[in-house]
Amino acid sequence: MTRPLIAILRGITPKDAAACAQVLVDAGITTIEVPLNSPDPLTSIQAMVAAVGKSAVIGAGTVLSVAQVKQVAAAGGSIIVSPNVNGAVIRATVDAGLQSWPGFFTPTEAFAAIDAGATGLKLFPGTMAGPEGLKAMCAVIPHSVPVYAVGGAGPANFAQWRAAGARGFGIGTALYTPGLSVQSVATRARSIVAAYDAAIED
């Protein structure tokens, strides 16, 4: 079962990349981003694509330029996540055949991203807008464009965010912090997936 969860592995190193990707997929998290401010991120992306590329969507986060989009595409990535709305980055991503998930915080930014061709939107930082802020914006954002909450959204409040309109989530430090063992990542991933499944059933 594929769930609308994006694993954000900020700080991961190439030596752990493939193994972490595998345990995430085994747990049921099949979209993984490696933020470009991680050590040697393109090598990690290549390792993940080689390990689980047929069963997972692998790509990069904190993508800020068209040049970086091209680098991620060359590394085999298929999703581009950004903390901001940059029309040139979104268009370059779409032109390369990759998914584009820019970060937004206002309706103006949301519609600018949609106009540029974004696949979906990332409310960031979610903790500042809160579920009520998201709910208000989802009243005008087209339902055809999925909105994921990132930052302040997690196992403790999945249900609340979903009720506000979140269609998925980006999970960072609750899932991974630099130096965490692969087994610990696996344990956290299973717990997060269980919490998400429970939120859906409620």
From TrEMBL:
**Keyword hit for Lyase:** yes
Q: Pathway, per UniProt?
A: Carbohydrate acid metabolism
Q: Which UniProt keywords apply?
A: Carbohydrate metabolism, Lyase
Recorded hits in Gene3D superfamilies, A to Z, give: Aldolase class I (3.20.20.70)
Give a yes or no for keyword Lyase in this entry: yes
Q: Which gene is the coding source of this polypeptide chain?
A: dgoA
According to UniProt, the name of this protein is 2-dehydro-3-deoxy-6-phosphogalactonate aldolase
Q: How does it assemble?
A: Homotrimer.
Lineage: superkingdom: Bacteria
Source organism of the structure: Aquimixticola soesokkakensis
GO molecular function (one): 2-dehydro-3-deoxy-6-phosphogalactonate aldolase activity
